[in-house]
């Protein structure tokens, strides 16, 4: 079976430098912007109800992350997601800690109704989002990635979207076709908001490669997997890891990405 | 006199990975999360009135920092602190720049009434909090640590809590028993929000070691003192210092902490 | 023609450690505080309407950046800028992405009426601010710096302020006297919020050197140009560049700044 040429999607991203409208949490804003810039996309963070629709409409993609949600932000996110839908702009949902509180579950139900192009979460979040019943513990995943694969596939089928579930190994699925991606490094969960930043990077890849959202999502995950492995080779802890990850994403070439991503395609489970 | 085995408190923290609900300022959110993750705790940042009580109730500890306070945040902090009290969850107050404005003084008066387990501040802040009269200058300390020891002890006695006062050397007191901690590095005040992050780390230590809050607070300060010294050995400025500090906290072993913290116990002043 | 002694302005800043009240965007807060601390100023971030005027009045300078603006912040910025005017405290406006939405244009019109001491932006922003007509694309500049020089001079004349326009090369003008500054490094646009941080550094320089705002602004730009070149010599990508930039700003001496800034004075265009 032929593997998708992941490097091509990175090359396209770098040529297009997609403008990614990021509505993300306060913890992740700076690191997300730096991850996008290092890889080759153009981030913009803004959220005021007075301007959010106007800006989403001129963006290439929209990334929504509910990490530090509050009422005004929630309304603006719903407006932005609806605007993205009206203009056929791809948008990505990162349902941070959706299992932790009723408020998050209620907001995610409303966001799901606006049809995200991709959902990116850890196993706990994917389980919670699929069932809106599972118990998450804060923002870190406690469920094993393997346990949640069925939930990811069901979620993709139910909402007609891509689901990217990340953890020790990553899964990406459109409900019928799936990829497993290996790589990364054990230090990655010791650096805050890498998952949030990955959701924004997925947005950039999908926005720049609209004809192939499943493969573009896999390419974004591949960037983190390959750059993460490389960063881990020199890092002495989470501080130097984070610095090395940005450098590795910047240095990563399309050929690197195609050659070194440990991608395992799977059809119909 | 026998010194407390500070490393034991770090070992307990790493086993327990306490979930620390952080309500902190925008400047400190990312660095605080990274400091907690590097040391071995699990941070979660959220603040919406719709969910804050629900989440505090499932947390191991609560860290409140008023750095970039505004009305909605203040109300949510009061709700969270009250919830922590109801569930006997330890919580820590960081009264950033409390001397600078009447608004901060008024909010801290309300927070103190909710009985924090620990107060962590610099000398200016401890003086201001004790007197609610002293003049602070922004967020950096201008009063010498030594001058404020009486205020720290008085504050601990008045509110039945631990007070950790940090500066060139640190003091921790429960009003009758005190420790002085030496160490750290002159570059530490040149990196923003390390004090804010330390307050969250104190929360993690106290939450994971509820039987010994005074010693657990000393252990948190010891981590910064020892890791700060180590980071200072390779740093060429505040940029590389911050990176090296995260690495040093990650690499720090319980034995290191016990052996290298310059801890000086003092009874009844 | 004699060049201004840029190093003298840095020496003054380090002696005075000006307290810079920063009202900036969520993405830039941490990096801005670190850039100010590394160079030698004292940052403070706060924005509540309940305290903002009280705090601006005791600050040495005020830095306003509209990056992640919303209604409460906008009102507080207007209050702070008015307070700065009443107390003759220098203040700097960073009109992030002013061309992108009507909301930003409307807010900037109100802020300009409060007479900023300095405006710092990229070419797109300066063009948009001068015309309140040009089309910006998000937060990154798309117009060439050269194209916008006339706009910068016109803006300075119209509002009786300094305009600092940064890009591949920088311009600073008071409407009649101008400097061009070369230096920096191609990695600088790949690190988020360096421009935002530079606006705050301009505030610190102008606050500490009130008798020479044009030259003090040039000195701030010179710090970034010289430190940026040095950081670029060791950086392997945007991660290590950001770390090295903070170290280089910390290590930069007044003599370095005077000797190595590539400053080109120009009179009456």
From TrEMBL, chains A, B, C:
Any Pfam family: HK
Cited InterPro entries: Hyethyz_kinase, Ribokinase-like
SUPFAM superfamilies reported in the protein's UniProt record: Ribokinase-like
GO biological process: thiamine biosynthetic process; thiamine diphosphate biosynthetic process
Source organism superkingdom: Bacteria
Cofactors (names): Mg(2+)
Catalytic activity: 5-(2-hydroxyethyl)-4-methylthiazole + ATP = 4-methyl-5-(2-phosphooxyethyl)-thiazole + ADP + H(+)
Pathway terms, separated by semicolons: Cofactor biosynthesis; thiamine diphosphate biosynthesis; 4-methyl-5-(2-phosphoethyl)-thiazole from 5-(2-hydroxyethyl)-4-methylthiazole: step 1/1
Keyword Kinase applies: yes
Residues annotated to bind ATP: 120, 166
EC number: 2.7.1.50
Keywords per UniProt: ATP-binding, Kinase, Magnesium, Metal-binding, Nucleotide-binding, Thiamine biosynthesis, Transferase
NCBIfam families attached to this UniProt entry: PRK09355.1, thiM
Function recorded in the entry: Catalyzes the phosphorylation of the hydroxyl group of 4-methyl-5-beta-hydroxyethylthiazole (THZ).
Entry's family note: Belongs to the Thz kinase family.
UniProt protein name: Hydroxyethylthiazole kinase
Lineage: Bacteria, Pseudomonadati, Pseudomonadota, Gammaproteobacteria, Oceanospirillales
Gene this protein is translated from: thiM
């Amino acid at each position: 079976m032929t593997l998708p040429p992941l490097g091509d999607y990175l090359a396209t991203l770098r040529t297009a430098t997609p403008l990614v409208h990021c509505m993300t949490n306060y913890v992740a804003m700076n690191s997300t912007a730096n991850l996008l810039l290092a890889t080759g996309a153009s981030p913009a963070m803004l959220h005021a109800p007075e301007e959010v629709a106007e800006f989403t409409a001129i963006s290439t993609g929209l990334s929504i992350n509910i990490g530090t949600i509050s009422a005004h932000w929630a309304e603006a996110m719903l407006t932005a997601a609806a605007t993205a839908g009206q203009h056929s702009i791809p948008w990505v949902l990162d349902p941070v800690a959706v299992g932790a509180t009723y408020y998050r579950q209620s907001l995610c139900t409303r966001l799901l109704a606006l049809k995200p192009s991709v959902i990116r979460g850890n196993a706990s979040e994917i389980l919670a989002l699929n069932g809106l019943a599972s118990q998450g513990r804060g923002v870190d995943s406690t469920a094993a990635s393997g346990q949640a694969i069925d939930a990811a596939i069901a979620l993709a089928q139910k909402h007609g979207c891509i689901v990217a579930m990340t953890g020790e190994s990553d899964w990406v699925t459109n409900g019928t076709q799936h990829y497993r991606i290996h790589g990364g490094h054990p230090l990655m969960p010791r650096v805050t908001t890498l998952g949030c930043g990955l959701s924004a990077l997925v947005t950039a890849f999908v926005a720049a490669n609209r004809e192939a959202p499943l493969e573009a999502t896999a390419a974004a995950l591949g960037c983190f997997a390959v750059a993460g492995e490389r960063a881990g080779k020199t890092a002495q802890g989470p501080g130097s890891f984070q610095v090395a990850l940005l450098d590795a994403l910047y240095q990563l070439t399309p050929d690197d990405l195609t050659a070194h991503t440990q991608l395992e395609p799977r059809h119909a489970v």
